[in-house]
Each structure stands twice: as C-alpha cells, then as structure tokens.
Amino acid sequence: MKARVFVSFKSTVLDPQGQTICSKLHDLGYPAIADVRQGKFFDIALAAGTSAEQARRDIEIIAQDVLANPVIEEYRVEILD
Amino acid sequence: MSAAAIPPDLIAQHQITPGEYDKIVSILGREPSYTELGIFSVMWSEHCSYKSSRLHLKKLPTRGKLVVQGPGENAGIIDIGGGYVIAFKIESHNHPSFIEPFQGAATGVGGILRDIFTMGARPIAVLDSLRFGRMDDPASGKRNRRILGGVVSGIAHYGNCFGVPTVGGECIFESCYDGNPLVNVFALGVCKKEDVFYAKASGVGNPVIYVGARTGRDGIHGASMASAEFTEESKQKRPNVQVGDPFLEKLLLEACIEAMHTGAIVGIQDMGAAGLTCSTCEMGSRGEVGVEIELDRVPQRETGMTPYEIMLSESQERMLLVADKGREEEVFRVFRKWGLEAVEIGVVTGDGKLRVKQRGNIVAEIPNRELADEAPLYDRPHTQPMRRVPLQAPPLPAPNVEQALLDLVASADLCSKRWIWEQYDYLVRSSTVAGPGAEAAIIRIKETGTSIAMSLDGNGRYCYLSPREGAMLAVAESCRNLSTVGALPVAATNCLNFGNPERPEIMAQLVEAIEGMSEACRFFDTPITGGNVSLYNETLGEGIYPTPVLGIVGLMKTAAPAGIAFRNPGRAVMLLGGIGAADDTRLGGTQYAKVIVKQLWGLPPALDLDLEKRVQDAIRDIVNQDLAESAHDLSDGGLAVTLAECAFGPAGIGARLDLDSDLRPDLLLFHEGPSRVLLSTAQPERVAALAERHGVAATVVGVTIEREIEIRQRGNRLGRWDIAQLQAAFDRALETHVR
Amino acid sequence: MTFGVIVFPGSNRDHDAAYAVANVLGQKAEFIWHDSTSLGAVDAVILPGGFSYGDYLRCGAIAKFSPVMTAVKKFAGDGGLVLGICNGFQILVEAGLLPGALIRNRGLQFICREVQLRPGTTDSPFTCLARKDRTYRVPIAHGEGCYFADERTLDELEAEDRIAFRYVGNPNGSVRDIAGVLNRERNVMGLMPHPEDATEPLMGSCDGLVVFQSMLSVAVRA
C-alpha cells in the first residue's frame, strides 16, 4: 500500500513561487492561466499488511506533525493501493 | 461619518485602554469607526508608538558631527566622507520568529532591508543578533533547536536571494529565551550624499503611488501582536504569519533606486509594521500634509477584504511613494521594466488628514499629526530592577583549568558558529574584507577607499545583574571590537529587548539600561541614530533577561585587518591593558560561572570608561601602524578562551604564556574584565612605547609557539592544551548540539 | 576585450563579475538586460550568479526563457565564449548548453566557504593559463550546486577532457567532484564556484583571476 501526501501553502498565505511562475507564464503567452500555486507531494510506502484504516490514521498524524507546517501549510492525504 | 459606539470588549481586544479610547474620541470629536479603531490600535501600539520607552529614549545622545539623520526616519544616516553616506539600523522580529521561525526571521530581514533602501541606500551588509533557549534542555531543547534551525535558514533564504552579505553577529543560548527567542537584524546600506530620500509626503495634489506585492490578509495585527505577551491564545493568531518573497524585494530594490534617480519621486516609505496605515499617516505627518487614498485601487491578493483588513495588512515587499504630479509616467515606466505593479491610490491633500475611502465613501478620517505624533506617552513606574540571584558567590569548585577551557570552547555560546554562518552568503558584492568569525565585520566601500567596520553586542547575563553596567559594557565591547581592527567607532543603533514594562521592576531594567547606554555612547562619541524597542518579551509570565543589543559602526581606511589568529611562531604575545582586576563577585556573570559553576550571581565585570578609551586608542594606533600581526579583544570566556581563539587560525600557532599575577587561577584565566586586547607582534618594544604614550600597560606575557598552548603563573604550569584537540571541540560543538 | 554581463531579474553577482572584469582585469564590462534580443558587440558573455526569478520552480528554469537566451545560444553556436557562474551555470544546463543538472547540496544546506579547485584540463579558453600541479582557492556560495549527470555523460565528459575544475574535498556531493564543465566545442563553461569573488588580495585570494586571464589571453590571440 502507498500513501501520497500533498502539501501546499494555505490559500490565504502568499505563495511567491507560484506567483512568479504564473507571471512568467503570462509573459510566455498563456493569458488563460489565472493562478499557479506551488506545492509538493510525498510518496510513502507502507509495510505489507498495514490496514487502510491504520495507514490513514498514521499518515494523517505524520502529515500534520512532520510533513506540513500547520502554521502556513495545508495538506491532503490520498491512500493508493 | 457616523459610527455606533464600540463595545468595550472590542476596544480591550485592540489593547486600547479606556483612557486611550477617550483620547481617540477627543481627537476625532466623535466615536471612531471599527476601521479607525484598528488604525489607532496599531499606530498607538507599543511597537509603533514607543509609548512606554519614548520618555527615556530622549536621554540617548543622537547628535554628532557625522550624523546626517538621527532617529525618526526609517534609518539613521552617517557621513563617511568622499561624498558618500551610510544608512543603518537594527530591528527585532522576535515574536513572529517564535510563531513561525523560518518566515518570521526571513520577513525580519526583509523589513530592515526595506528600511535601508527606502532611504535611497543600497544594502551592503546584514548582521544578526540571536538568542535562543538552551539546546540541551530536556523539556524544550528539541523545540529550541527547531527554532534555531528555522531562524537561520530563514535569514539565509532571504539575505542570500536578495544579494546582501550576512557578515556577522552573535548567537547566545539561555533558558530565559525558551519561549521567546530574540531575532535582531542589523542592516547597513550606502549611497551618495545627494541621493538620500526621506519618508515625507509633500506637494498638495501630488499622486500617492503603491508599488510591490499585492495586499493580502497577512499579519493583521502583527504590530499589536509584537506588543503583547505570549499566551496560549497567541497560537490562534497563527494564520496571520507573513510570507516573505526575497526575489520580489530584490526587484523592488532595483526598481526603487532606479525610480529615485529619475528625480520624479518626492518621498518614499516602506510598508512594514502596520502597513498602509503607518506609511500613509507617517508620511503625511512628517510633511505636515494630508493623504487621501481610495482602497478600491489598492492591489489585492484576496477577495472580499474589508477596509480594516486592507489598512492593517502587513503583507511584505510593498512601498508607498509620492511622485511629482505630471511625472508619474517616469515612475511607472521603471516599475514596469522590473515587472512590478505600481498603482496610483491617492493624493496629497492640504488638510492634514488621513482620509481613507472605499467606493467613494469615507471609511476613516483622522488628523495625521495627532495619530502619528500624539500617541500616548507613559511614565511607567519603575522601582529596583528585577534580580533574583545573590550578590555573593556560591562556594566555587576547585579550579581544573585544563578541563574548564575544553568545556568552555565547546559550550553553546563560545563554540564556533560556522554551522550557522556558512549558510549565509557572506561574500556577495565582493566587498567583504572581514566576515563572520572575525573580530568585527568589515565591508569596503569600493567607491571611496574607506571601509565600514560593524559589531553587534549585548550580554543579557550582565544586564540582568546590572542593567546599567551591562549596557555600558555592551557599548564598550562593541567599540573595542571596532578599535581592535583599526576602525574609529562613529555611531550606533540599538535594539532594546525587554519584558513587560507594566511591571515596575522590568521598567526599571529598561530605564537603567537606557541610562547606562546613554552615558557610554556619549563617552565614546557614538550617537544612537535609530533603533527599535521590543517589549513584552515574556511567555506565560516568564520574562527574558534584559537584553539591549548595540550595533556600532566604525570607519577605517580600506586595508586587510591583522586578524585574530597568530600567524608566526616566535612572536611576542602582549596583553594590552594588563591582566585586570577581578574578584568572586565580578565572576558571577561570566561564561565560567555559566558553564563550569552553572550559576549566576554577583555583578558584571567592572568597567573603567577612561581606561577603556585609552586601550582602544592604543590598539587602533598599533594596528594602523602595522605593528601587530594579530589582535583579539578579551571578552566572553576571558583570557584563556581568547588565547584559544587566537590559536585556531590556519597556521596552527599557539603560545606559551607566563602570567605575573596573584589572582586565583580560575579568576586569572576566565574573568571577563574589559579593556584588554591580546596581540602578537615582532616589535614588542614599539608596541610598548606606543601603548605607553596612551597611558596603557602593554606587557609581554609570552611567545607564540607551534601546535600547543601552555599557560603558566609565575613559572607554575596551570595547563597545557593541544591546539588540534581544542579546535576540534570548538569546531564540532554546535553541530553536535543542533542535531 | 568587452565582456557582456547578462542581468536577469534576481541576478546578484552581476556587479561582482563586472568589477572583476573592469576594475581588476582592466577590460570593459557591459550589462545586458535579460529582455534584450541582441548582445551588441561583446567578445565574451558572463551569466552571473544570483537567484534568477528567485530560483522558484527550479534554479535557472525560468531564466532560460528570457529573450536574451536566444542571442546567447546563437553567440555560443558561433563560437563565442560563454561563462556561466553559479546561477549562470544552472541556467546553462537548463537551457541545454551544457550537460547534466545541478541539484540540492548533499548536506541540504546553502554553503558559503572557500574551497580548493584543481583544473581538470588546461585545454580550454577558460583554463589555458591554469596549472594542473596546483590548486586554486575560490569561494562557493550555493544551495543547489551538486553536479549530477548519468554515468554515460560523465564518462563522455572525462573521455573528451571536458571537466574544467574539480573540487579537492567535495563540499556538496557533486559526482566525480565536478565543479565546472565545458561544452563539446569548449567555448562554453559552467562553474559553480565564484572566480569573480577571488580576484584581489582583499577578497582573501586572487586565484579566480586565472579564469578571466585565460579568456583574455585567448581573445588577444584571436
């Protein structure tokens, strides 16, 4: 089983990276791009036999405490199999 | 405008006292609107108004023949000759750095850099004074290490990308900074004398232009947060953390300087604490004019922002400027070139009011001068400075000086800070003559052939024992650092980090520290040209040590400094200023007391201002006449630690000393009496003669040798150390502590 | 000799490079704004250090789209000397003018320190005055300076004698200690360390001068 955790700035927090990329995309001739938010994701492999429930519980905690900085970032957990 | 009366709990939430509220009502002649209350609350916060400290700050010397601009502007300005000036200031970002260490420290760097280039000066150096809780504390050590790591990478992230060298500073660990780290950032910039700009609006009818980042809900109430003690509730303030964009700031720097050169700009101010509010009313107040703005024109990052939020937002990387009417296009053209947004949001008026409109309706209307300059002023009661340690020394352990020196060089405060400063780009601009780890940072001004030496100093332990003497010692040490590299100290900036001023014993610390600093700055002729006060540095009722941090700048001819490290064997080692006097009481604030005895007591080292000045004049002459191969002042850790540091150079040269003194070995080697410099020279007679001319003792205490350090007292060996072993402990300690 | 120094938004060692060329080497330095479509009459081009576009996305990834890069590619294609330092090196690899990539330092931290370099070849316009029997003290200042390329590329670089400089005591985890590489035609060099910051005694070392002096000697001969 695998889990994927997406981490990005909260929507209310300024994302300089995303903003810089967005404005360059406009320069490059993509006026249709309205906004870019940059984030990252973590692919986490779980040991065989881990239950989906257990995995979700652990990964939620890991995402909250380790992978994301709750002061400025939000996260989303996906459990893949 | 009509507004309903504001409920008392909302007023209290804005940290406005009932008395202050009455004053607001009398200034306006009516009840304030919610937006106006917010505006008053930030402008009258401790952070912006200095309401508790202003009365005492007036005691500081602020004038001097080189001072072009003293306190009251974004930065102080000093004439360095050759048609050039420097602008510099130190500022704290303590509270934001506790809440989010990386962004807190990064935006701290961003804020002070804007203060410098707002004056028209290009930033050329940054130094940081940092205080953290102990890394080895069983309960809080992990968090303290995380804060340290975050702060250091935040400073590196911002400064490195912006392209300003971070060339020095200090970093100290004490339990009292556990829930309240100190992040004080000093920045210095240079420009031609005629290119200085002021944050003053003028010319009725001139357009008011907003440039830089869009406004979001960042840091709303940051300025009032920086003025309140931390409680459990402050965690709820977290979503307001600002995120810095050093790339945008770099563009803003280049664009502002280019725009200033068009001649079309009348005045300019950055939007820092209290954002749009502070910049509009301060520029208006300084120029004795009014400013009217329309909020719908303010570039916004988020939708549905209220006037309150727009006025109080602390989004970073924004500037407000006033241009000459009819020449706006010249300004816009420059900002377009740099890909930056520049929008006319208002106009300078003749009625002296800050008028804020939204969709044509007035949402706030306040007389500028009263808002900016008539903030409440408190003469807070002050008693005896808080002090909960004995005057008398505890029973001291039998000195084991060999082990003590090993322990001291590996202690958190004294060990090499290379792990920190290698993360900073200290070389960009190719003007760094002396960087981190040196006696003082030195940056050359390529245009003039002069160099600027800079040093930050502050000792919370000394100040806790005696705020007055501690502050004087900080001034003395900072000046001594500069003199030891051959520079003449000329001006200073201060960052006053204290606890809750509403407690009389804390207020007393502040008052005494200011008075001590004032006396010493007068004595050394280093006027204070600006700075910052950070109060309420307490968490859950636990205050920090009083920590005034001094940043002093000196001028020198551009030349390679002697350096602190011994370079050749067989040279005379001399102690300028003598062995000094010390007793058990005066040992209580030293690193020996902290690391070896593990207690705090007594008084800080005794300072004799006259002697200090003579020693400084002597060492300046000695190094400027190229008589010393190395020179290092004595400070934390005393003679033994200083000697060890002199031995940590690339040449691996140590020394054999024989000291003629009655002092007990622990006092002799580790007392921190000031007014002393350790130097090595091939010309001891000439050094002695020159010192004598200044009325200073310069005794030969030993000779440089290879590979080791040995110290004797009247022939008896006190200790012997292998340099490689000592240096390994010194070099590796921080990394070991951090991990 | 005229050196064109390209200025991208976020370049911050552009002035260091110009100072080394003009004040130390005694040649001419001209700044070229990234928006420019022509390089003018320059004899060599320097892509300086810094954080072009904040190094957001990836270092050099956005700068490669700057209009000036088309001119730089043409200039390089015509045999002109192009030196990319630090961020300039990152831009050159992103733009495909040099092989490999520069990734996060092994220790994950930005490192500013003096390092020792040994020339990998003296057969290039950037190293022709260097000596292989000595090392050169030059500073590094980067967070993403770990050189990476696949084994085949590395073997090819070595076989073709295209490794310009190697670290003595690898500071950042670069494969095969690579600090700088050349293109196949040997007229484009990327270098992570900063030779421009080691050109005067006051900077602590003059060892970086050899790069600029080499370029000058080639230009004078031509």
Task: Tell me briefly what this model is.
Chain B is an alpha+beta fold and 739 residues long. Chain B is built from 25 helices and 28 strands.
Outline the secondary-structure elements:
The complex is a heterotrimer of chains A (81), B (739) and C (222).
Chain A: E1 2-9, H1 16-27, E2 39-45, H2 52-67, E3 73-80
Antiparallel strand pairs in A: 1-2, 1-3
Chain B: H1 8-13, H2 18-28, H3 34-43, H4 46-49, H5 54-57, E1 67-69, E2 76-81, E3 84-92, H6 94-99, H7 101-118, E4 122-132, H8 141-162, E5 166-173, E6 182-192, E7 207-212, H9 222-225, H10 246-261, E8 265-270, H11 275-287, E9 290-294, H12 307-312, E10 318-323, H13 328-337, E11 342-349, E12 353-358, E13 361-367, H14 368-373, H15 401-409, H16 418-421, E14 432-434, E15 441-445, E16 450-457, H17 460-465, H18 467-484, E17 488-497, H19 504-523, E18 528-534, E19 538-539, E20 542-543, E21 547-557, E22 572-576, H20 591-597, H21 609-624, E23 630-633, H22 638-647, E24 653-659, H23 665-670, E25 677-681, H24 684-693, E26 698-706, E27 708-713, E28 716-722, H25 723-738
Parallel strand pairs in B: 4-5, 9-12, 17-18, 24-27
Antiparallel strand pairs in B: 1-2, 2-3, 3-6, 4-6, 7-10, 7-11, 8-10, 9-11, 12-13, 14-15, 15-16, 16-21, 17-21, 19-20, 22-25, 22-26, 23-25, 24-26, 27-28
Chain C: E1 2-7, H1 14-24, E2 28-33, E3 44-47, H2 68-77, E4 81-85, H3 87-94, E5 101-103, E6 111-119, E7 136-142, E8 146-148, H4 151-159, E9 163-168, E10 178-182, E11 188-191, H5 209-221
Parallel strand pairs in C: 1-2, 1-3, 3-4, 4-11
Antiparallel strand pairs in C: 5-8, 6-7, 6-9, 9-10, 10-11
Polypeptide structure, described:
The complex is a heterotrimer of chains A (about 80), B (about 750) and C (about 220). Chain A has about 80 residues and is α+β, with helices and mostly antiparallel strands. Chain A has one domain (about 1-80): Phosphoribosylformylglycinamidine synthase subunit PurS (Mth169, Chain: A), CATH 3.30.1280. Chain A has helices spanning about 15-25, 50-65, and strands at about 1-10, 40-45, 75-80. In chain A, strands 2-1-3 form a three-stranded antiparallel beta sheet, with helices on one face. The model of chain A has no long low-confidence stretch (mean pLDDT about 90). The longest helix of chain B is centred in the first third of the chain and has 22 residues, at about 140-160. In chain B, helix 8 (about 140-160) packs parallel to helix 10 and helix 18 runs parallel beside helix 19 (about 505-525). In chain B, helix 19 links the parallel strand 17 and strand 18. Chain B is globular. With about 220 residues, chain C is an alpha/beta fold. Chain C has a single domain, classed as Class I glutamine amidotransferase (GATase) domain (Rossmann fold, 3-Layer(aba) Sandwich). The relative contact order of chain C is 0.18. The chains are: A alpha+beta (about 80), B alpha+beta (about 750), C alpha/beta (about 220).
